[in-house]
Amino acid sequence: MSQTMIIIGAGEAGVRAARTLRQHNSEIAIHLFEGEQGLPYERPPLSKNALLDDAFSRKLIISAEELAQLSIHYHSDTCVEALLAETKQIRLTNGKLFGFDKLLIATGAKARTLPLLQQKGLDQHPLLFSLRSAADCQRIRNQASAGQHVVLVGAGFIGLELAASLRSKGLKVTVLESQARILQRAVPAPIAEVLAQSHAEHGVDIRLNCQIEDIRLNNEVEIDLAGQTSLKADWLVVGIGAEPNIHLANHAGLALENGIQVDAAMQTSHPDIFAAGDVCNFLLSRYGTQVRLESWRCAQEQAEVAALNMLGGAVQYVQAPWFWSDQYDLGLQSVGLSINPVTKIERRYDEQTRLYIELDSQQRILCACAIGLGNSVAKDIKVIERLINQNSIVDITTLGDVNVPLKSLLKRAKECV
Amino acid sequence: MSNWIEVCALDEIDEEDVVPFDHAGHTYAIYRCPEGNVFATSGLCTHERIHLADGLVMDDIIECPKHNGRFNYKNGQAQGAPVCEHLKTFATKVENDTIYIEVAP
C-alpha cells in the first residue's frame, strides 16, 4: 500500500511541501489540512498592496485546479485538534482520525498580544487589531478611512509596513516603540536610519523608548505613556512580533525551544514528524546555531528539504536566509545572519541607497542588509547571497568601494575555486 | 511583417547583465550573455509583475529581484517555483553596434 503524507498548515511551507512531495512521488497520498477557509494564499501582500489597492483579491499560492491535478487532498476550514505521535495519527475537531506515515507541521505563527490587554480582558476588543491572516487584513481594510488616527504598537516590519500603507491611505499614524530605534533586532542602524527618515518625511510620528503604562479601549483608544501626555486614537494595532503555533507539537511531546526544534533535515525529535516555516527552530549549520525565522522564502526552502526527507532523502537546509520589506517607495533586502560579526562595512551609493555588510574574522561574509529605491539593491544582495553560500573570502576594500561592481568579487571567487 | 525596433548601443549593456527597455506601452528586458550575444524577453516577472531588469544575470539565468523566480532568458523557460509561467522572448539583432528587437507589428 502506498504511503500517506499529512501536512498541517497550508501556508507557503505547507503548499511547497505538498508540491515537492508530488513532484518526486506520484504514488503517495497527500493530505493538506488548513484551519482557515478558502484556498492557500500569500501573506506578504497583506501589509502592503492588499491595504492600498481597493480591488485587491487574495493572491493564491495554488489553484483548485492545480490541487486536483496534483491529487493533493486539500482540507480547508478543518482544524487539527491533536497529534497522536505514538500511533501516528491526527485527530480533527470532529473526532475523525487520520493515520500518517510521515507528517509535516507547518502551522506558522500567530500575532503576539500585549499582556496588558490580555490582563484587562480587552484582547478581543473591536478597536484592537493585529495582522497575520487575510481575515485580519480584511478587518483593517473595513476599519481604515482617511483622517482617522491610528496607533501602532511595535516598530517591527509588520508595524512599519502597516504605518506606510495606512499613512498612504491618509490616516494619521503614531508608532510606539519600546526600543531606542526602529527594527532594533532585525536591521543594522544605518539601514534603519533611512527607513526612519522616510517615515518622518511622510509624517508618521514614531516615538522611541516608549513605555506604555495603561491602555483604555471604549469608544476610542486612550494610551498612557510614561513621562508623556496621554494619547488618543480611533483604533489600535499591535504588531509586536509573532509566536509559533506549537500546541499540537507540545501535546505530542516533541522537543520545543522557541518553536519546534528541528535539525538541518527539518526532522523533529520524532523520526516521522517534520516541521518547516515560522513554527520551527532549525539548525543552521553554516552559522552553528538554532534559529527561528519568519521568512517567506525560507519557509518554502525548508519545506522542500522536509518533503525530500519525508520521502527518504538525506537533504539539509544550508542556505543563508533571505528577507525583504517594502515601505513607501523603498525596498529593503537582507541575507544571512548577524552571528558574531568582526568587521562591518558600509557601502553607501547615496543617502537613500546603502548596503551594510558584516564579516567574520576570516573575511567571509556573514550577512548583509540593503535599502534603496524600488528593487535597486536586489542585484547586490543576490551577489552577497552567492558569496555567503560559497563561503568566499572577500576583499574588504572592494566591498566598500562603490566604484567597483560587487559582481567582480563573485568572478574573482569563482576563479579561486 | 517584421517590426525591428532600435534599443540602444551594444556597449550600453555589460556582458552578463540586463537593461530595461520600454516601447509602445510594453516593457522589455534586454540581456547580454557572458559570450556577448544579445537576447530579449518581456520585462516583467510572470509571478508578480516585477521589473526583471533589476535582477541578477548569472550565465543563462535571470533571477527576479523580488522573489527569486528564475528564468532562462535565452528561451524564456521558468525554472520552477515561485514561477511557473514562462517569459515571452523576442528576436534580436545587432547592426553597426546597435541592438534591435523584433516586436509584434
UniProtKB/TrEMBL annotation, chain A:
<protein>
    <submittedName>
        <fullName>Ferredoxin reductase</fullName>
    </submittedName>
</protein>
<dbReference type="Pfam" id="PF14759">
    <property type="entry name" value="Reductase_C"/>
</dbReference>
<feature type="domain" description="FAD/NAD(P)-binding">
    <location>
        <begin position="5"/>
        <end position="303"/>
    </location>
</feature>
<dbReference type="InterPro" id="IPR023753">
    <property type="entry name" value="FAD/NAD-binding_dom"/>
</dbReference>
<dbReference type="InterPro" id="IPR028202">
    <property type="entry name" value="Reductase_C"/>
</dbReference>
<dbReference type="InterPro" id="IPR016156">
    <property type="entry name" value="FAD/NAD-linked_Rdtase_dimer_sf"/>
</dbReference>
<dbReference type="InterPro" id="IPR036188">
    <property type="entry name" value="FAD/NAD-bd_sf"/>
</dbReference>
<dbReference type="Pfam" id="PF07992">
    <property type="entry name" value="Pyr_redox_2"/>
</dbReference>
<dbReference type="GO" id="GO:0005737">
    <property type="term" value="C:cytoplasm"/>
</dbReference>
<feature type="domain" description="Reductase C-terminal">
    <location>
        <begin position="322"/>
        <end position="410"/>
    </location>
</feature>
<keyword id="KW-0560">Oxidoreductase</keyword>
<dbReference type="InterPro" id="IPR050446">
    <property type="entry name" value="FAD-oxidoreductase/Apoptosis"/>
</dbReference>
<keyword id="KW-0285">Flavoprotein</keyword>
<dbReference type="GO" id="GO:0016651">
    <property type="term" value="F:oxidoreductase activity, acting on NAD(P)H"/>
</dbReference>
<keyword id="KW-0274">FAD</keyword>
